[in-house]
């Protein structure tokens, strides 16, 4: 979906961003305070030259680019944008805390490069066109000079931001490395070695995913949580198959994510899809066959918040 024509006037110069009741000096002081709050972890870029320089300096690090506007806050859902003219103030409200969320994530993930672009300036608008940004806000994830994924619109953006940083940047809260808990597999031999190394009572779980598949991104925090809590009960690994089509064919992978279950070096089952509940159920069922009890969950005996399950899968084209 393209930006609606009535949003175009929102792309204004920096000088036009004085809020009602503010003098230009007060507006400048406010902008300086907001910039200081990000503790220099979020780098502001203003044009294509800034972007290309930061992308080059990042090297192999994950780059997360937040593109937003002070005047536009879109959901990314076309039908919802029809309500924009009815109540613009209410439409802007969901984006009010986006900068804070982005800055907080940046402070927690020190190995990731965080960039911010204001789309309201002429230079920012031109860079949006170069980047293919059609919805504001948009968060893009770049690695090795290539865009690997993006999230359009404010709906679930705060959650998706954390999921993307974890999935692509190997970084969870407090700079915890997911790869220290979930083994990354890069070849058929590494897969065979990992499967063979696990004792009989430990179920081997291999997450087969693709870089650009949203369901794989969304379920990965749950996979990390299971790997953390199921130490000694199940061993987890991830196999990214983007550059391994032959291996995916040998494993008979038709959709992602697919979770392969192994015991004693042999596949004993698999789960296809991104339902967290179904994945946990399959793991528990596999272990129950041998009478192996799952470890108690963290905070057992305390009320736990219920969250809706996300179900999704992507078919692979052969």
UniProtKB/TrEMBL annotation:
Q: Where's the Thioredoxin domain?
A: 203-280
**GO MF, one example:** oxidoreductase activity, acting on a sulfur group of donors, disulfide as acceptor
Quote the protein name from its UniProt record: Thioredoxin domain-containing protein
**Which residue windows does the record flag with biased composition (Basic residues)?**
307-318
Q: Which Pfam families does the protein's record reference?
A: Thioredoxin (PF00085)
Residue segments, region Disordered: 1-25, 291-318
């Amino acid at each position: 979906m393209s930006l609606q024509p009535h949003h175009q006037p929102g792309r204004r110069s920096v000088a036009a961003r004085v809020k009602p009741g503010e003098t230009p000096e007060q507006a400048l002081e406010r902008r300086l305070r907001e910039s200081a709050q990000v503790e220099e972890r979020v780098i502001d870029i203003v044009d294509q030259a800034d972007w290309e320089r930061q992308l080059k300096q990042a090297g192999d690090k994950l780059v997360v680019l937040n593109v937003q506007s002070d005047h536009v806050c879109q959901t990314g859902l076309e039908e919802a944008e029809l309500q924009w003219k009815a109540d613009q103030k209410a439409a802007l409200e969901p984006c009010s805390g986006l900068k804070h969320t982005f800055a907080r994530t940046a402070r927690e993930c020190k190995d990731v490069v965080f960039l911010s672009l204001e789309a309201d300036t002429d230079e920012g608008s031109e860079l949006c066109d170069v980047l293919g940004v059609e919805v504001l806000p948009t968060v893009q994830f770049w690695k090795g000079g290539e865009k690997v994924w993006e999230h359009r619109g404010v709906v679930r953006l705060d959650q998706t931001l954390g999921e993307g940083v974890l999935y692509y940047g190997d970084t969870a809260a407090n700079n915890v490395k997911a790869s220290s808990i979930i083994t990354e597999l890069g070849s058929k031999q590494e897969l065979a070695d990992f499967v063979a190394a696990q004792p009989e009572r430990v179920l081997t779980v291999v997450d087969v995913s693709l870089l650009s598949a949203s369901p794989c991104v969304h379920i990965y925090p749950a996979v990390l949580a299971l790997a953390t809590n199921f130490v000694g009960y199940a061993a987890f690994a991830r196999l990214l198959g983007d550059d391994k089509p032959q291996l995916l064919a040998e494993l008979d992978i038709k959709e992602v994510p697919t979770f392969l279950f192994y015991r004693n070096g042999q596949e004993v089952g698999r789960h296809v899809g991104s339902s967290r509940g179904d994945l946990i159920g399959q793991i528990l069922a596999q272990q129950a066959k041998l009478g192996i009890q799952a470890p108690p969950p963290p905070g057992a005996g305390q009320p736990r918040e219920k969250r809706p399950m996300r179900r999704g899968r992507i078919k692979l084209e052969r």
